[in-house]
Each structure stands twice: as C-alpha cells, then as structure tokens.
Amino acid sequence: MDLFGTAGIRGPVADVVTPDLALAVGRAAGHEGDEFVIGRDGRVTGAGLVDAVAAGLASTGTAVRRVGVVPTPALAFASRDRHGIMVTASHNPPADNGLKLFVDGVEFDHEAERRIEDRIDTGSDAVGWPEWGCGEREPLLSSYRDAVVDYARDHGTALGDLRIAVDCGAGTAGRATPQVLTDLGGAVDALDANVDGHFPARESKPTPETLRDARAFVADGDAALGIAHDGDADRVVILDEHGEVVHEDTVLAVLAHHFVARSDAADPVVVTTPNASGRIDERVRAAGGRVERISLGALHEGIAAARAAGDEGTAVVFAAEPWKHVHPAFGGWIDGVASAAVFARLVADRGLDALVDPVPERPYRKVSVGCPDERKAAAMKALRESLPDAFPEGTVDTDHGVRIDFPDGDWFLVRPSGTEPYVRVYAESDAVDDLAETIVAEVERATGAT
Q1: At what angle do helices 278-287 and 248-262 cross, to 10 degrees?
Q2: Angle of the 432-447 helix axis to the 376-390 helix axis, nearest 10
Q3: E strands along 111-198, which residues?
Q4: β-strands 402-405, 411-416 pairing
Q5: Which residues form the domain of 210?
Q6: Which of 169, 232, 312, 395 has the most CB within a 10 Å radius?
C-alpha cells in the first residue's frame, strides 16, 4: 500500500480520503503515541474526517485533543512533545482532503509512514472498551500567534505602519497572518480572510493567475507589500508594491541569506531541494554558509541528515523548498505565517528592492515530459548516463534525479514526478530556451515520448 505522497495523504474524498480511510489511519497512528492533537482546515469534509480520525485514535486508548480550524503550522506547533494529525488538502481543490501526521513538531518521516501503511494493511486491534481514550477541546490560535510574534521580533525591525495586503484566499491563514502582522504594528488589509471550504474567492493554490484580484488590489492601492497563502497557510507568496509576484526562489534566497548572515555558527547550513535555483547557493555563499539538498517533501529529513553529518559548529539555520519554509529556531515544521512575519519585518528594515536586488535572477523554465510510472525507473537510469555525457563541463549530482551545475551558475534538473506520469525538467540559464530544448530532447528519447 502506498498511501503517502510528498506531503502526507491527499486526494478526493469520494474515493481516496474517505471516512473509512481516516478511521483506519487514526487506529494505525494511535499505536505511535498516547496523546494526539487534531486540527483541520476549512474544507466542508473536514469535520467528518476529524471525527473518523478521532474515533480511530480513541479506540487504541489514545487521548485526543481537538484544536478546531487552524493553519497547518499551528497544528504542527501544537504537536510539540506529542503527536498530531492535520486534516487538510493544502492547495488542492475543495473536493479533496488529506491527512498529515506530526510528531514533536515535525512531519512523520518515511519510516513512520511505512509503519502506518503496514498497520492498515494488516489491521490494528482496538483496546478493550474500558481503555478507550478520552477526548477534549484545546485552545490553540492565541498561543500560536503569540509565539510567531515573539519569534519574528528577533528579525528585521518594527513594521512602523507598513501597509500590507494579505490574501488569505478563504483559507485558515485568515485566523493567523493578519492578526500576527497587526500585533507587529503593521497596517493590514486582510483580503478574503473568512474561512470557507468552498474557496469561493479563488483557487486554494496561490499562483500569478489565481492571485489576479489581490495583485490588482496591491497595484491600485497604497500597500507596500502583498502576502498570499494557500488553503492551510503552509505556503507563502510575496507580491511587490506593483502587484507582481516575487519569484519563489528569490524569496527563498533572501531569507536564506538573512539567516546565514545573522548566525554565529562556524558552519551555517541551508537545506533546500534539487529544483531550487542556484541563486540560493550564491546568496548563501555570499553570507558565509553552504547549501545541502534533499528530495522534495523531505526537508525535515534533510535537516536531520545535515545535523548528523556536521560537527559542533554546524547549525541548520533555514530550510525550504519553493513556497514552503522551515524555521529551525522556531520549530521543525513548514510555516508560511512565520515566513510572512519575518519577511515583512525585513522589508520594514531595508525595503523590498534592497532585499531582492542582490539576488541574481536568470531565465527559468519548467517542462513536464509524459512518462508512464512503469517506465520512469528505466528512463532515469538512461538519463543518468546520457546527460553527464552530453554536458561534460558540468558538476553532476544524481542523488535526487539528475542535476548538473555549470561554472557560470547555470543549472538543470531532471527528476521523475512522485505523483503524476511525468518526468520534470527544470532549467535556469541566460540561454534557457536552448538549454531546455536540448534536455527535453534527451528526456523524450529516454522516455520514448518522441
């Protein structure tokens, strides 16, 4: 059974993330710990799935603490020193839902996910009826928001009435980011901050297209900064004063540079993913740090690996994949609210232009080449041989696909999608069209797409 993808379990509630599955996951997860905190996003199906998860947990003797409708990072915050389950499909359509599991503020690793799958396959016994776990409600949002505010105050400077437009997209960010930024002194325009699981304002996934109204609001108004989130507030998108989306890798590079520059560690490390831009490496090196890469969806495992491989002077100061950031000094979870707060204070301190101008931006392309799942392994094996031969001047890394970096800062990555029948091609270069065309031709030969 392969239930877990790169971000928990996710899919349509009609036939994938059903109440039966939620019950089975709860019963399987209950053997991991004696207390679980459960939260959900605003999706219509969330309440029923929470009930099913809670029933499964309680049947194993586990104590259940319900925190209601909250951002995913708030649930992760609440799971410190215990376990947690978030019922959310993040940026997926409203007919989907999902389950994301945490322990001590960190997402379950692959080994723990396999244990859950194995128990579902073989069945998990309930305890005797006198031993069923208890359940109660637990307040969360105020303590989480206060913790984010305290954390953000160590970065940048007071917002000083900086006007910020926050597009919550009718997701759970409406219960966290506007309040946090207001407490930090900002003048906040909260857009679609009511939680509505139908996502009537826009699609849950924040893209330049779905953020059209927010971009126009910022461009036509007097906001100096725009911030947008997905449905559960683990992703963050930054808009400049003209309503243009700041490239996600540029945002990552700005934050990575900041955390490395302020660190007093002898070996400050930033963990990111293979599809992240070389501009991140350049800014981290400029600040005196280094970059380690880990596969998509495994930032927490990359953080643990970097710490284990380092010495006393090694410190992971930031970890991120495009759109999603982990703040190790705050916690081990992905937190779009914390990123919004820190980034806003950096803008208040230096201005957005001063933050992004030093970040080198080259043209970027992403292409998906069709490839059935059963052919991916053979295709990638062929590409590990053909691509290094085609680009002998580059430095090759085959840990997570095939990534080749060139001396002038250009790079490309080829990797199989973990959820769809594609091989993904990412390329960044001043001559990106020519580079991407050459790579795609190699991929098409390997996959048989031509």
Answers
A1: 20
A2: 140
A3: 135-137, 163-167, 187-191
A4: antiparallel
A5: 140-262+321-361
A6: 232
pLDDT recorded at residue 1: 60
HEC string of 180-226 equals HHHHCCCEEEEECCCCCCCCCCCCCCCCCCCCHHHHHHHHHCCCCEE
442-to-319, 377, 388, 397, 422 alpha-carbon distances in Å: 32, 15, 11, 17, 14
**Which of 334, 361, 388 marks a domain boundary?**
361
Residues 113 and 153 occupy one common structural domain? no
CA separation, residue 52 to residues 25, 96, 112, 283, 296 (Å)? 9, 16, 21, 46, 29
Here the CATH number for the domain that contains residue 24 is 3.40.120.10
pLDDT in tens, 348-386: 999 999 999 999 888 989 999 999 989 999 999 999 999
pLDDT at 189: 97
- Cβ proximity of 411 and 403 under 8 Å: yes
Neighbours of 112 (CB within 10 A): 17
On whether the pTM is more than 0.90, the answer is yes
- Inside any domain, residue 234: yes
CA–CA distance, 427 with 445 (Å, rounded to integer):
18
Residues 222 and 331 in one domain: yes
Q: What does DSSP say about strands 83-87 and 402-405: parallel, antiparallel, or unpaired?
A: unpaired
Set 59, 79, 90, 277: catalytic member: 90
- The sheet with strand 163-167 has its strands ordered as 187-191, 163-167, 225-229, 236-239
Token duo for residue 96: 């989907």
Cα atoms in the 13 Å half-sphere on the side-chain side of 438:
15
Q: Minimal CA–CA distance to 148: which of 8, 307, 344, 358?
A: 344
How many Å apart are CA 177 and CA 230, to the nearest integer? 12
Q: 129 pLDDT band (50/70/90 cuts)?
A: confident
Q: Which residues pair with 303 in a beta bridge?
A: none
Cα angle 428-446-4, degrees, rounded to a multiple of 5: 75
For residues 83-99, average pLDDT: 95
Burial of 20 (0-12, 13-18, 19+ CB in 10 A): exposed
Nearest to 148 by CA among 336, 403, 411: 336
Same domain, 41 and 14: yes
Sort residue 170 into left (φ over 0), alpha (ψ -120 to 50) or beta. left
Pick the closest to residue 277 from 424, 410, 423 (CA basis): 410
Give the number of other CB atoms < 10 A from CB of residue 150: 11
